[in-house]
Amino acid sequence: MLTQVGFRDIRWGRQVDVFSGSKHESDAKEFDTRGVTIAAFKPA
Fold this sequence. Notes:
There is one protein chain. The chain is mainly beta. Helices cover 14% and strands 36% of the residues. It contains one helix and two strands. The chain has one helix at 25-30, and strands at 8-16, 35-41. The longest helix has 6 residues, at 25-30. The two termini are 18 Å apart.
């Protein structure tokens, strides 16, 4: 999807448990929710 809207040089970071310790931690664990960093370049 990112390439379809013009992004290039897409780099995916590692998956991180961003909900650990939050009030919605149990919901996130139930659905195996993770956060991930994405870096990309979109030419003008």
